[in-house]
Design goal:
The complex is a heterodimer of chains A (299) and B (321). Chain A has 299 residues and is mainly α. Helix content of chain A is 72%, strand content 0%. Chain B is mainly α and 321 residues long. The chains are: A mainly alpha (299), B mainly alpha (321). The interface between A and B is large, with 100 and 102 residues.
Chain lengths: 299, 321
């Protein structure tokens, strides 16, 4: 772009660039500082954190926070639970979303409009919290792992993304041609639709995986068995409600150290709980624009 | 379509009623596996979405968990009457509207400004870096962000209050102060979601024809004039549709965020419909009353969405349906 070369208002343009650069830098600092701070604090010693010495970089480098995290049985178990719920929940999500999207993408399906209305209507109207709670109770899902997996099995939004994708990227002629060769609809789904929809499957997998990883509302509502708690509930106990299980530290001489250890533990815990998201983040990022844009198209 | 034609070809008589029935049967026979494939999704919707909708009748009952929906006594509109005479409900409703309004006023322009700034960055690597960073908070849970906020805003050790201390100011207990709590909600919401929201505007900006800018430059327009006469007019469609749709969800103020951050000190200014329903419904067991409150919210939301969609259509924009 050689716009500036022609510009007749060099001074005004300069102001423009300075203001825009200034705002962007401010945003950059505002977003990154808390994240850097958490990371630095997690690698500092308890003493440095609780006395407020950590400003930008780790002070008095130590791994005691991480040690405390991995020694805490609740955290380790909850971590495992969350992995299980995420894997299972994502599998269910992707299966249900793709099958449903495929069926609804086929013009041959009678009553397509009716089904679509039935599905999209639930995006804008729901029974609400209490009727859902009563249902979970009646289905005996309370205090089972399934309450973390089943209730969110089909996101209408994801289904619309997938349906739009299938409709626009798999030509109708292909279906006709294969059906003349005797290929059934079910077989077409497995042999053509799934392989051709890799991009959208990736989007849905990653989005629902992140969703399950971060899910805590259902756990809050429907689980009260500690052994089933996912990570987010334990995080809430420790980070928000300040219930660090200090009874694990038996030595009375460590009374002061306890409070300090608790402070670092929180930061380390935030890092540990976020690492899986950071791991999939580069992969999701590739699909951001695609996902958001397809989703904004008409359903 | 062609299946219908094929069906009509094979159909010997052309009696209208028979044709229709026959066609439907043929289509069911031909596409039975499609219906089978859709079955899990359909079952999910019926069980997890439509059955709870039937559960709304609880709002008109005096629900008792022992008697169940069938055995509970019907009380008509009693709960709705109680709701409208309950002063706590008014506080909650007011908070919902206020917090939502603040988030709209302060939060809505955020992504637009961010997208405009990002669009000016010519250094691709820097741009990618900034984008990667500002999208990230969207993927962190509110529990995590709440944890960060509590530590960063802590009156004793938090970094924000340390800065205030350096400036010679008194420490502020942000999360326990009725004046500051809503500000924290709005700012943290912007921090988490502004980057993500910018994506759609960036896409709209990328689709502006560069020739328009070149023409503007030839006509002597500087950066400000370009922004005012080229960029903003090109964005206005996207802005209007997103604004209207946002109005449709004005009662959804974000349960998780408020639930994570609020505490009895700030219930007065922070309790919204969703948190109120959770607290009085689930933890205090007033099932019927809170179902009525939830229903009130759902109905208003539905009306708002329909109106918003109509408005978007009227403005000549893409609508939801």
């Amino acid at each position: 772009m050689s716009q500036t070369k022609f510009s007749t208002h060099p001074a005004a343009d300069k102001v423009y660039y300075i203001i825009s650069g200034f705002i962007l830098t401010f945003i950059l600092i505002a977003v990154s500082y808390p994240l850097i701070y958490v990371l630095s604090a997690s690698f500092s010693s308890g003493n440095a954190v609780s006395s407020g010495q950590v400003l930008l970089w780790p002070v008095d480098f130590s791994l005691e926070g991480y040690e405390a995290v991995f020694k805490n049985k609740d955290i380790v178990r909850a971590y495992g639970n969350t992995f299980l719920y995420t894997a299972l929940g994502t599998l269910v999500n992707v299966t249900v979303v793709m099958t449903c999207a495929y069926a609804l993408s086929r013009p041959g399906l009678k009553g397509r409009g009716g089904f679509m209305f039935l599905f999209t209507f639930t995006m804008f109207f729901s029974g609400g919290l209490i009727p859902f709670y009563i249902l979970m109770k009646d289905l005996h899902l309370i205090n089972t792992m399934w309450v973390m997996v089943l209730p969110g099995a089909l996101s209408v939004y994801n289904m619309i993304i997938a349906r739009t994708f299938i409709q626009s990227s798999i030509p109708g002629e292909l279906i006709e041609a294969t059906s003349i060769d005797g290929c059934s609809d079910a077989r077409f789904f497995f042999s053509f639709v799934l392989p051709l929809s890799k991009a959208v499957i990736a989007v849905i997998t990653l989005f629902s995986a992140v969703g399950h990883w971060n899910a805590y509302f259902n756990a809050l509502m429907y689980l009260n068995d500690r052994t089933l708690y996912p990570l987010q509930i334990i995080l809430r106990e420790i980070l928000i409600m300040n219930q660090v299980d200090v009874s694990m530290i038996m030595d009375p001489e460590l009374q002061v150290a306890k409070a300090q250890a608790a402070a670092v533990l929180k930061y380390s815990l935030i890092v540990v709980a976020t690492v899986p998201i950071l791991c999939v983040y580069p992969f999701i990022q590739k699909y951001f624009v695609k996902g958001v844009m397809i989703g904004s198209l008409k359903g | 379509m062609d299946s219908d034609l094929a069906a009509a070809d094979r159909q010997p008589e052309n009696h209208p009623l028979r044709t229709e029935k026959w066609e439907r049967f043929q289509s069911l026979k031909k596409y039975w596996d499609l219906y089978l494939i859709m079955l899990p999704g359909l079952a999910y919707f019926i069980i997890f979405k439509y059955v709870p909708m039937g559960g709304i009748v609880v709002a008109f009952q005096d629900f008792s968990a022992f008697a169940g929906i069938r055995g509970s006594e019907w009380v008509g509109l009693t709960h709705f009457k109680n709701m409208f005479t309950d002063s706590e409900f008014y506080t909650v409703f007011k908070n919902t509207l206020l917090i939502s309004l603040y988030k709209l006023i302060w939060g809505f322009p955020g992504p637009i400004i961010l997208a405009l700034m990002l669009n000016e960055v010519r250094h691709m690597l820097y741009k990618r870096g900034v984008q990667t960073l500002v999208y990230l908070p969207h993927f962190l849970s509110w529990v995590i962000i709440g944890g960060i906020l509590i530590n960063v805003l802590s009156p004793a050790t938090g970094i924000v209050n340390q800065f205030l201390g350096m400036l010679g100011l008194e420490p502020i207990f942000f999360l326990g102060s009725q004046e500051w709590f809503r500000t924290v909600l709005v700012v943290s919401d912007i921090w988490k979601e502004a980057g993500w929201g910018a994506i759609i505007y960036l896409a709209a900006l990328a689709s502006i024809d560069p020739q328009i800018y070149e023409a503007a430059v030839v006509d002597g327009a500087g950066k400000w004039k370009q922004l005012l006469h080229v960029t903003l007019p090109s964005l206005i469609g996207t802005i209007v549709i997103l604004f209207v749709l946002r109005l449709g969800s004005v009662l959804d103020v974000g349960f998780e965020q408020i639930f994570v951050l609020y505490n009895p000190l700030v219930y007065n200014v922070a309790d919204v419909i969703e948190t109120y329903v959770y607290r009085t419904g689930i933890t205090q067991g007033q099932f019927s009353f809170t179902t009525a409150v939830g229903l009130f919210k759902s109905v208003i939301s539905l009306i708002l969405v329909v109106l918003a969609n109509k408005a978007a259509r009227k403005l000549g924009q893409d609508s939801l349906w």
